[in-house]
Amino acid sequence: MLTKLGQKFTDGFTKFMPSAYVFALILTLLTGILALSLTDSQPISILEGWYNGFWDLLSFGMQIVLIIITAYCIAQSSPVKSGIDHVARLIRTPTQVYVIIIALGALLSLISFGLVVITAILGRELALRIKGIHYPFLVACVYFSFNGWVCGLSSSIALLLNTKNNFLIDKGILTDVISTDFTLGSILNLAMIGLFVVVSPILIWLLIPNITEGKELRDLQTSLYDEEDSVKDEALSYKLPFRALSDLLNNAGWLQITVALLGVSYIGYYFYNHGFELNLNIMIFIFLILGMLLHMTPMRYSIAMKRASSNISGVLFQYPFYAGIMGIMLASGLGETISNVLVSIASPKSYAFISYITGGVINFAIPSAGGEFAVIGPSIITMVQELGTNLPAAEVTAMTARASMSVAYGESLSNLLQPFFLLIIFPVMSKGIKIQARDVIGYLFIPFIVLFATQALMVTYLPL
What we know:
single chain, mainly alpha, globular, 24 helices
């Protein structure tokens, strides 16, 4: 019954779901119309806000790009590829593929959302080896698997709250950082991790399509060529037929490893002085140094980075459009208007649920936890502070952490219906085939409904 219902939703999304870029264009127009209708802003002010917004998140956008390409670079290293090959040999049936992809992807996402590319590479390899795999459903599984990243080490809202001199502190909304003990280390967040790692694979198992005819990878391929030289082999192909100093330097493992060890030294120094305090910058630096160690030589690392960079073209040209949408919401006050309406009905019992809903709704216009929190974070935190006027400071901090993480959970869940981050996995999984967001998103509608009901209860009632 669930499988048939899931197929009906999939058929509906296939008919009506546009591409990720078209989705961004429609949202741009819709946001502009709402800004004109619900605020007192003049059209030229909205246009200026849209234009200015294109450039307001360049720094944050660069951080997102670096998270993606450094993770993708790690995924291309020989040790990781060998691990993927070893895992692939142990999996024999389509059901095992779907369940393991969800569980493994959830675990990897706790390290970084960028590591979804490893899950995508494994999924692609399994689809080439095992018959009977419904490929669009497998792509949906890979996309679903990284939904729990907000609970892990690259959770941008949790890291932002724990980053010194963040914009909330600069604006006087917060007086100090909020430790990850209140966010990532909380009982609520640990329970969320269990939901993604244990419950989600069971849910996907119940939704596995019965019919795979015409939907296997070999049925969808427009090109039979699926092999790519390893990074090591491509590096060797650049060598000159005679001995040259340039080749010796390009392939000097000692040079790259020496610099990487300096990075390792700093990472050790950082954690010694700051404890286990994570933010976007230190996560990117760790991935950068790890990639250097795994690829060994400058030439291999350069090739891996070149390949990794081809994975983010969609993010590069679409992210500014979403930043422009954020610019409209900020310049017109639309974001504040929407969040204030929700905040106005909040109470000590409902504030976390209100935050959760707000995060999910705004994510359709701003599919970035950090960018979204820049718009609605001040209103959410001000709401909590007003509700906690007569409460001890520690309790207000805990409430702020719960509300902020609730925004993160809502934002992450609505990604199941927002196709923007499919751009991360499509370069791997759509190679040689024609597949679009509309072919994938429908399989995620039932998981969205189930997780929405479950998470709403968790953010409201579970202790922090």
